[in-house]
Specification:
- The complex is a heterodimer.
- Chain A contains 11 helices and 12 strands.
- By secondary structure, chain A is of the alpha/beta class.
- Chain A has 2 domains: 201 residues, P-loop containing nucleotide triphosphate hydrolases (Rossmann fold, 3-Layer(aba) Sandwich), CATH 3.40.50.300; 70 residues, no CATH class.
- In chain A, the strands form 2 sheets. In chain A, strands 6-7-8-3-9-10-12-11 form an 8-stranded mixed beta sheet, sandwiched between helices.
- In chain A, a hairpin with a 2-residue loop joins strand 11 and strand 12.
- The longest helix of chain A is centred in the middle third of the chain and has 18 residues.
- The two termini of chain A are 42 Å apart.
- Chain B contains 14 helices and 2 strands, in the order ααααββαααααααααα.
- Chain B has a two-stranded antiparallel ribbon with strand order 1-2.
- Classes of the chains: A alpha/beta, B mainly alpha.
- Chains A and B meet through helix 2 and helix 3 of A and helix 9 and helix 14 of B.
Chain lengths: 344, 329
């Protein structure tokens, strides 16, 4: 039985700025399985936030989804498939607005600024409920209190009338989660939800999220650059570099036998307290200027294993095992491609 | 909240008191007083210089020989206890009468201009921010800068010329001839409205342009804030989310402009009123200052400043109502 919730095929999101076109997401393939957690990992600026915003069509101007498909199966689990393509929807249209906040919802990185200080927490949660359900205001309020209680906010019946700026960062992020869950979404997108929190709060929020994921049986798309968080929460991992998914597999394979040199370097850069005090081992070089992307494999200027062909050939996806794929010439039989491309 | 209101009221009373002292002192700062002015006028009209003891007598009659703080004390205590503003030395009338006759007109004009400024600046400011760098934005920006750059008395002169040239009548004053001295009635009020829009637009022009820029800049700051993205991810329509979130946030500086728009409007009103011959306080205040008619001048300045202080107070209260961060501190 096909258990796919969202199937992203060759998604491209480009930003049309005055200085030129930035290819923030440049041909991404992703499959989100129902009830599973996919973690999207990468350095700042690799396009992971843009990619997940594209799933809800809330990419900021001047960004546009220019190609690809986002096939969303909105049918009930195990029931009749009802597949629609989000990529083709008008970002301002009613169709996508009915999905946002109801079937796909999102929590953001900055709990301090993601809630408006002008309205109470309750107001902002109830707004989402009233928008997508037929509940009355009183019922919506009761539901909001129930949700706040569920995400571990003490005295939820009183804090529902509190303004966000009177809550701590962790409490705000909990409120955001309550808001995102208010309509029982199929997919929850979390864009670095713990980055702005301190470490203890981080752990609490992560626990909360994986608990809620089980009880709501929802799919979780978790964006982060923190590999510690990935190890804790993810089922599958997709590693992103300069708008492309360079390696994709289950969490154990990624941590135990990473294949792409970028993934290997990322894992090596985690400081290990247990072993020995030595210098940090960062990935050498910087993420390239988005306007001057390197030709060939985008990672070759920083890659320790690069060879001559890496400068000219763009690697395609190589399936190593059924659930492990990588975009790297080390694993690709590219001899044929050189021949065909030279003919052209 | 109540504490805040109480504290603000205290500040307000103190501010008005300081203004009353300053306005009284400043008016007496130029050399000479009303009597010297009067004598100079008589001499220039061909009269003879008065004997100096007569001059002293005049000063005694008008109370000009007392030290300044005594004069101030007499003046302010009469205002507070009896509502008397003294005597106009030029018009030979009760100053309070003169003020009550003129001030409501000024107030109507300022309030009208203020409503005009807001009604025009708010939607255009929002439009300019949301459609940044569009043709409409450029057009409004262009008009706005002209409005900012051209002094409003010049606009008034141009308008006078045009109305005289093309409609064969000078659109001056606030009332038609038949209503000018008539007692207040509904038709007179309608007649006032018919005339009021011209000075309202002329006076409001500069303020509108400034406020459009303020609104545009504020809103541009807010449009990319994370809470806007949150609201969008809920599935709100663009218009609803725009009005509920970024516009609400951008409104704060907009509301606090009430305070500083009022004095600007009143200042602009003086010259426009002189050009258009409006029965407002501006021209009278101007004359009073020139001829050192101190009670009238001080009275006007005191009342206008009080109105401005009240305007600021109102804007502060509005801010507290609008923004929980201020209310809850």
């Amino acid at each position: 039985m096909d258990n796919t919730l969202i199937d992203v095929k060759d998604l491209k999101v480009h930003f049309f700025t005055d200085e030129g076109v930035v290819r923030a997401v440049d041909g991404v393939d992703l499959k989100l399985e129902r009830g599973r957690t996919l973690s999207l990992v990468g350095e700042s600026g690799c396009g992971k936030s843009v990619a997940c915003r594209a799933l809800m069509q809330i990419v900021r101007n001047p960004g546009k989804v220019v190609a690809g498909e986002i096939l969303y199966n909105r049918g009930a689990e195990g029931g009749q498939a009802e597949i629609i393509d989000i990529a083709k929807m008008d970002p301002k249209g009613k169709e996508i607005r009915d999905i946002r906040g109801k079937e796909i919802s999102m929590i953001f990185q900055e709990p301090m600024t993601s809630l408006s200080p002008m309205y109470t927490v309750g107001n902002q949660i109830i707004e989402n409920i009233l928008l997508h359900t037929n509940l009355t205001k009183e019922q919506a309020r009761d539901l909001a209190i129930k949700l706040l209680d569920q995400v571990g906010i003490p005295r939820a019946d009183r804090l529902v009338d509190e303004y966000p700026f009177r809550l701590s960062g962790g409490m705000r992020q909990r409120s955001m989660i309550a808001m995102a869950l208010s309509c029982n979404p199929n997919l929850l997108i979390a864009d670095e939800p713990t980055t702005a929190l301190d470490v203890t709060t981080q752990a609490n929020i992560l626990d909360l999220m994986s608990d809620l994921q089980k009880s709501y049986n929802m799919t979780l798309l978790f964006i982060t650059h923190d590999l510690g968080v990935v190890a804790e929460i993810a089922d599958e991992v997709a590693v992103m570099y300069l708008g492309k998914i360079v390696e994709k597999s289950d969490v154990y394979t990624i941590f135990n036998s990473p294949r792409h040199p970028y993934t290997q370097a990322l894992l090596k850069s985690i400081p290990k307290i247990a072993i020995k005090r030595e210098d940090l081992d960062p990935i050498k070089g910087m993420v390239p200027n988005p306007f001057r992307r390197p030709g060939g494999c985008p990672f070759h200027p920083r890659c320790p294993q690069a060879f001559a062909e890496c400068k000219v050939l763009v690697p395609t996806t190589t399936q190593l095992t059924p659930n492990h794929s990588v975009q790297c010439l080390l694993y690709e039989n590219f001899a044929n491609r050189i021949a065909t491309e030279q003919k052209q | 909240m109540w504490k805040y209101l109480l504290r603000r009221t205290g500040y307000m009373v103190f501010t008005v008191w300081v203004i009353s002292v300053i306005s009284f002192v400043v008016i007496q700062l130029p050399p000479g007083d009303y009597v010297t002015n009067l004598i100079n006028q008589m001499i220039s009209a061909g009269g003879e210089a008065l004997p100096s003891d007569y001059e002293m007598q005049l000063r005694e009659v008008y109370g000009l020989n007392d030290p300044m703080y005594v004069q101030y004390f007499k003046w302010i205590s009469r205002i507070i206890t009896k509502g008397e503003f003294g005597y106009s030395l030029v018009y030979k009338r009760d100053a309070a009468e003169l003020i009550t006759e003129r001030l409501p007109m000024t107030f109507a004009l300022s309030f009208g201009s203020f409503l005009f400024v807001w009604a025009v600046a708010f939607p255009i400011g929002v439009y300019s921010a949301v459609k940044k760098y569009s043709l409409g934005d450029y057009v409004f920006t262009f008009i706005g800068f002209i409005g900012l750059a051209v002094p409003n008395f010049l606009l008034a002169l141009i308008f006078l010329f045009l109305s005289y040239r093309y409609f064969d009548q000078a659109m001056i004053g606030l009332f038609s001839l038949e209503f000018a001295d008539a007692p207040w009635s509904w038709p007179k009020f309608m007649d006032l409205l018919k005339h009021l829009w011209i000075p309202v637009i002329l006076i409001g022009m500069g303020g509108t342009a400034g406020l459009i820029r303020t609104m545009r800049a504020n809103l541009l700051d807010e449009l990319n804030k994370p809470y806007v993205e949150t609201a969008r991810s809920k599935g709100l329509t663009e218009l609803k989310l725009l009005m509920k979130y970024p516009v609400r946030h951008a409104l704060n500086p907009f509301v606090s402009t009430i305070g500083w728009t009022l004095p600007g409007l009143i200042g602009g009103e003086v010259i426009v009123s002189i050009v258009l011959n409006l029965p407002t306080s501006g021209p009278v205040l101007y004359n009073a200052l020139r001829s050192q008619d101190m009670y009238v001048a001080a009275g006007f300045i005191l009342l206008l400043s009080t109105l401005t202080v009240i305007g600021t107070f109102v804007s502060d209260i509005l801010l507290a109502v609008l923004d929980p961060r201020i209310r809850l501190e």
